[in-house]
Every structure is written in C-alpha cells, then in structure tokens.
Amino acid sequence: MPEATVALVTGASRGIGSATALALARAGLSVAIGYRSDGDGAEDTVAKARAEGADAVAMPVDVRDEDSIDDAFRRVEGELGPVRVLVNNAGFSKDGLAVKYSTTTWDATIETNLRGAFLCARRALPAMLKARWGRIVNVASVAAIRGNAGQAAYSASKAGLVGMTKSLAREVGGRGITVNAVCPGFVETAMTAPATEELKRRYVELTPAGRFGTSDEIAAVIAFLAGPEAGYVNGAVITVDGGLSA
Amino acid sequence: MEMAEIQEKVCKTLAENLSVPEDQVTPQARFQEDLDADSLDLVEAVLALEEEFGVSIPEDEMEGVKTVGQAINLVAQKLGVAA
Q: Which of A25, A73, B34, B79 has its CA 20 to 30 A from that of A15?
C-alpha cells in the first residue's frame, strides 16, 4: 500500500459522506471532501478532518458533469496525490408514487446515483490499475434490496449501483483493487429529512434494532472496506441497516 | 516522430506493461495468443500508450487492435505519421 493514501469522498459536506471523510481522516488518510452545493458544510468537514491531523481539502465536484469530475481528480492529484480510495457517496432522493413521478426526477435520480458513481469510478480506475492498489466503496441503500413504495427511481438507481459494484469487482479484482457496496438502512440525514413522521415511525418498527442508524455507524463500515485489511472483501454488498433486510 | 521511433517506443511500452521480453513484442505478435494478454491487460497497455504518446484512443478504435502492428499503426495515425 502506498504511504500517503488519498481518499476522495463525493457528497462529503454532510451526513454519511462527511462522517466517512472523518473516519478516513482518523485512519490516517488524506481526504478530499467532495461537495456540490454546500461549501460551508464541506469547509466544516475539512476543519474537523484537519483537527484529526489529516491533510484535507474541500473539492467542488458535480458527479453529473464529466468535466467537473475530471477537474476535481486533477486538483486532488495535484494537492494531495493520486486517489487510491474513492467513496461514491453523492446521492439524490425524491420520493413519489410511480403513477405521478416525473421523468425529469427519474432521470435526475439515475444521473446522480448511478451514472455519477460510474463516471467517478471510470476516472479513478486508471491510476488505481497502475498502482495495483485501490478501493472503491459505493454507498447504495437497503432500498437496493428491499423495495419501498414511492422509491422506484431511488431503489432502481441503488440496485443498479449494486450491479455495477459486482461487475467492476470482477473487472479489476485481479489488480489489487476492490469494489464494494454498503447498503445503509434508515439514517437521519439531510437527504432523508423530507420523509414523513409516519414513514419514519414505520421504519423504526420494521428495524430490529428499534432505532435509526447514525452516519458514524455507516462510515465505520466504509472505512473498514477502504482500509488495507479489507483486501479480500471484493464485490460484497454489506447491509448496515439494524437488521431491516434480515 | 519517425515511424521507426514510434515502433520502438510502442514495443518498449508494451513489453514493460505486459511484462514480456522485448524480443517477443514484434509487429506480428498477437496480444491474446502470443503475448498472453487478456482484455484488461490490453486496456492497461492502451492507457500506457496514451500516456507515453499524449494521445487519446477511444474504445471503438481500440476494439480492432489485435496485434502489436495494429497498435503501432493506430498510434502513428494519432500522431499524424503515415504508416
């Protein structure tokens, strides 16, 4: 493993992405805090990562835009070093029943959650192949495994991400690169905030743990998969859902 | 860049990248059958050639490349050198 391992986490200004960046910082990695709109949140995460003693930079990256991704990778390579760990965390979610769901929102969901993760992985892989070492962790969702009324687009995007994870794992697994997916259950973040109180209550009832997960609990699993000890975990889909999908 | 120089550099890059002795990397050599390169090896070799020569080789142009000679011609074409 290279000495100064550099991680890029997309959507790291808040929630699971921010917690993941901090977990990686605590593990001694240099972290690029990818963000699209929340620059303040990104800077806050950078400050916390630096307080852990890590090199950290806030990095604007819109995963819908190939040029933006390329710029971000170039800047990270210049400021921190080649990206050895990619966490595809940037996500979009808008619930709605299929009959009245707009094509635009469907496309936006797939564009960020699935296409965006592919574009970032494709940009990251050449350097990982050359280094014969790399970690890609895709943040999917329990919705990839267990359907939810009102989440046809979201669960399709996340199930797609799981399929992509497995194929990439086979493609590059012979080169010291692992590609895994983490499927969080319900975690209270800005993304899940619009869910109704009734839906949240139902989720807690369905979850054997009897509570929501925390961003830190998801981040811990991602950080493990990103680490040197997880080299034999490849193509895995790990639920971190308090037992919801058990 | 002269054609001979391109050929030499392509062969050297491929030999390094595919971990095969340079004398095996002849224009006639077939990637799969003669150099034991699988599809990912070939992609990696193309990435190395792109870096070495500062060219961009899209997937559809890569698909027809079965021999070292074809790779040399493709790079030459990208550099605007007649084969």
A: A73
